[in-house]
Each structure stands twice: as C-alpha cells, then as structure tokens.
Amino acid sequence: ERTIKTQRSRLKIKRIKLMNQNRIIKKGSQFLKNKNIGSYLLDTEIILSDLLGISREKLILRDKFELSKKEILKFKESITRRAKYEPIAYIVKKKEFWKRNFFVNRETLIPRPETELLVEKIIKHFRGKSPYILDIGTGSGCILLSILEDINKARGVGIDLSKKALSVAKKNSISSDCFHRVKFLNKSVDDFINKKFDIVVSNPPYICKNDIKNLDNDIKYFEPKVALDGGNDGLDVIRKVIYKSKTILKTNGLLAIEIGNKQYKQVSQLLKIGSFREKDLIRDYQDNIRCIISTFIN
Ligand code: GLN
User: Fold this and answer.
1) Contact 77, 11 (CB under 8 A)
2) How many C-beta atoms lie closer than 10 Å to residue 294's C-beta?
3) What is the 111 CA–ligand 1 centroid distance (Å)?
4) Ligand 1 close to Cβ of residue 205 (< 6 A)
5) Cα separations (Å) of 180 from 107, 148, 152, 155, 279?
6) What is d(CA 8, CA 180) in angstroms, rounded to the nearest whole number?
7) Reading across the β-sheet that carries 132-136, which strands appear in turn?
8) 3-state class (DSSP) for residue 231
9) Does ligand 1 come within 6 angstroms of the Cβ of 256?
C-alpha cells in the first residue's frame, strides 16, 4: 500500500512563485488529511518551515513568501513521503529532544518524550558531580549527549551494535560542547569487564516480536527493527542489560532503564534477582511506569 501511487492522489500545486502561505499549507494539510495522517496541519507546517529554514512560529506569522520551483517540488516530495507514513522526523532529519535538535535518520530510533523524563531524573541526581556513564544502545546518542551537556563534569561512553547508528550519534556530538567527554563505540556490553561506571543507562528495544506488526505504520514501516524488537517476551535485551550491569557498575552504581508499557512487574522481578534495589520509578504522561532507576547492591 505504501508504494501505490495513483494519478489521482498526487499533490497538485501550480508552479506559481508567490504563494499565499495559507494556500500552500491548506493544500499540503488537506492532502495529508485525506490520507488519514492525524497530525496533518502540524506536519505540513513543520515541513514548510524546515524547507524555508525558519521556525514554525515565524512561518505562522508570515503571510506571503516566495517559493522557487525547486522548493515547491521539495515541498510536494516531503508531503508525499509523509502521506506514505514516513515519520516527520526522518523527513526533516531532526527531532527535538531535551534542550536541542538531534539529527536522526532511518538508522536510529526517533527520540521519544518519555525518554526525556529519564534524562531529567538522571541530570537531577548527578548535578554538580562527575559520573562516568555507559549508554547501552545509544542510537542517536540523545540520552547520553543530553546528560553530558547538562552535567559538565560527566564523561560517558555510548555503545551500539549498529555502526550506522553510531555515525548518527557521532554527528550529534560534533557540534556539542561535550565532544571531548564522550566516546561512541561499536561494542557489545559483553566487551566491558571492569566495574567502573557510576551509571548504566539504556532505552533498550523492548517490544515483543509478535507485537511489532500491530504498531503504527509510521513506526513499523520506518523505524529500525533492531531498535524495537525485544524478542519473544520483549525482555531479551532488558534481561541482558540487567545481568551485564552487575559486572560493570561500581558498588552502589545506578541502573536507569526504560521499559515498555506493561513490563514493570516482570522487570522488577529481574532486578530483585539481580541484586538491584529500586530507587525511583518514572511514569509517563499516561501514568504508566516507564523507567526504573535502581541501585546495585553488591
Ligand atoms: N537510546 C536511543 C533513544 O533512546 C535509542 C534507543 C533504541 O534504539 N532502542 O532514543
């Protein structure tokens, strides 16, 4: 269904140069609305403001602007991609997370607002301190870089099995003032042996293999499967992160892990068995427990 392109469903905008901004936004958003994209207006505004290199706020205030032929083509192309469910973050190649925009592409998960709650808690906990942090499955690097940018004495390592994801994380670190305090490595958690980290943080893949087909089209067609798939019970990677953290955390070190909607009971059990004491639970905006911060008691 994603690839079907009928003549009828093409977005038609005449090649006129001076566009009334309402008109082009109306055209784009109506097209997306007809394709059942819920956030049709917002998405159109994001696409257009990205194209013009101005903020959405500025875009809305402006009523006329010139679009070159090329820009109109680009606008149509982006709207058409969105109509085929491609997430807006991949189209504009960025996603706002914590205090800034992160570069993203289809090699990385798109940073989620609930993950900001985890970042916020960790930053509060380590304010003024100098923790050494390991981020397992760092993806775009959003978690680690956000923490390091706020805690200027912290250092960290982000690991990922995907080299392509790591190049995204590296790109995100280049413009950052924490550049010299961060390393991104193509390693597995098994490659670490020393008890040297003050905190292990991870937003691991935690969706049950069989549930992936029920996710929204945006997610299941576009986001990397390895970033989502947590095996048959969704807990494969979580189990591993808990188990391995024991060997690489300092005594009383922290494990901060994001979990799926209904995984709290099971993960809580795994933590108990693994000698972790729960310290903080973070609920998402729907009041589900989504992050657990626990202490490793040797
Ligand atoms: N750490 C990244 C994030 O939170 C990627 C997580 C993942 O790919 N599962 O967005």
Assistant:
1) no
2) 24
3) 7
4) yes
5) 24, 10, 11, 9, 31
6) 53
7) 182-185, 155-159, 132-136, 197-202, 249-258, 289-296, 276-283
8) coil
9) no
> Nearest to residue 143, comparing CAs of 190, 175, 108, 188?
108
Convert the pLDDT of each residue in 73-85 to its tens digit: 999 999 999 999 9
Q: How many residues does the chain have?
A: 298
How confident is the model over 196-247, as pLDDT tens digits? 999 999 999 999 999 999 999 999 999 999 999 999 999 999 999 999 999 9
| pLDDT for position 1 | 35
Q: What is the pTM of this model?
A: 0.91
Residue 168 to residue 134: CA distance in whole angstroms: 17
- When mean pLDDT is compared across 67-71, 107-111, 254-258, the lowest value belongs to 67-71
Does the CB atom of residue 138 touch ligand 1 within 6 A? yes
154 near 130, Cβ under 8 Å? yes
